[in-house]
Amino acid sequence: MTTTLPRPVRTAPSQPRHRSRLLTAGAALLLFVALVLPREIGQLGPAAFLRLPVEGLVAALLVLVLPPRAGRRAATAGGVLLAGLTVLRAIDMGFLAALGRPFDPIADWAQVGSGVSFVEDSAGSVAAVAAVVVACLLAVALAVLMALSARRLARVVRPHRLTGLRTVAVLAACWVTLAALGAQLVAPVPLASRSVASLITQKAQQIPQSIADQRAFAARFATDPYRGVPGKDLLGGLRGKDVLVTFVESYGRSAVEDPAIAPSVTPTLDDGTRRLAASGFSARSAWLTSPIAGGGSWMAHATFQSGLRVSNQKQFEQFAGSDRVTLSGAFKEAGWETAAVMPGTSGPWPEGRVYDFDRVHPYESLGYRGTAFGGFHTPDQYTLAAYERLEHGRPGRGPLMTEIPLLSSHWPFGPIPQPVDWSGIGDGSVFDAQSHAPDPGPVGYDDPLKMKAEYGRSIAYSLDTLVSYLQLHGDDDTVLVFLGDHQPTPAVTGSGASKDVPVTIVARDPTVLDRISGWGWQPGLKPGPDAPVWRMEDVRDRFLSAFAR
């Protein structure tokens, strides 16, 4: 009898070990980066990721001590949570870089609609919808990827429970030591990382504070001491005057006091003070604390006009839907013609109605046919020339109150237009000759010194242009109020800068400045370090009180 040996059973080839190890390493790297991600864009760099995250140690401990099924569920939930916190951290980074503050989960969701509207205006509705869809898909993909990564790591470490517990204990001791020593490779990023825990704590504290701020806004919003005041009791001290309010984009305290910026701005202010004095004008200056920094100019405009601190989009929308008395509305009630020259606004401007402007001149109506300068086409000199043509120089008009934002100092601060002869401005094509000059191009975050220099030059241009206009067209009935809307981006000011902006009142009639002698504002166009500091929302009431009768 012949014995037949059984054939060896062939099993399906298993996944190559190197591929499995690469997947595990990739999963670990993804979760590690999410755990140690720094708070600010400026802190990003290889050394900033050489950290020991305490949250990773806690997660590993949970997976090792929980029953297998519970451990897998905890890993899945932890991965999804970490993905959400990573998205929130990225949003925070953007807000800190652009606005100098973290994202507010209560009030800032209204900004999403503004962002979508901006994309729609810039690139069309299809691009706006596509951007929303892509953002949602990326968020979902990140959540799935992190959940799968966390489950994979849990499955890998679970069979080595004892070794894992010993490793966690050693690393925990290292973390405590590093935390006690305050060890850092890149300041202010500690080696003993608790980024995720800090983010959760910060948001947990921010939410009730945001709710309290909103309630305080609502309480102040509900009362308005100037509602119902008749026109005859308003602004009698300025009867017959033409009042021009100009916001100089990003004109912040740093422009006057930062040693890397002030050399461009201070001589312009000092020279402007001398030139205006030679033309018979006097000036008083101080500081205002803006509700914002880096961007959101419309909130500063609303704060200055309304007497309310408007610091987020939700508050702005509440203000824009109200009948709050604004400065321009008070002027209109008192008999002034009111206008707004808006070089940065395209098409209809629905919010203009809350300011009670008789006429609004958006970019399209200014007639500019010259070369574009940066993100906003119209040089400040042309904007002021258009104001002179459309409003101030218009025959047969009455006393005029006008608001104008000057935008040549808007980021990215370049290219900066050069002054031309006022008589030859025409439709702005005179600026075309400047398009052949060397263009420094947009100023990026990668060159802080260049950004400071170009920012200073842009502010100096705007201020010099304003002084030049006043010398040419100002008279005994001219009152100019000019101020910054907010400090520039933190990439210019550095982190922790104040929100103060300069404010100046200029007039030739001495009785105008006599009215504000009790304010303690300093002579000249440049406020000194010890000049008074007011909240921007206090201006409306103080101004209306000083010039009431």
TrEMBL record:
Which keywords does this chain's UniProt record carry? Membrane, Transferase, Transmembrane, Transmembrane helix
Name the record gives this protein? Phosphoglycerol transferase MdoB-like AlkP superfamily enzyme
- Residues forming the Sulfatase N-terminal domain are 313-488
Does the keyword section mention Metal-binding? no
Question: What's a Gene Ontology MF term here?
Answer: transferase activity
The keyword Lipid metabolism appears for this protein = no
> What InterPro entries does the record point to?
Alkaline_phosphatase_core_sf, Sulfatase_N
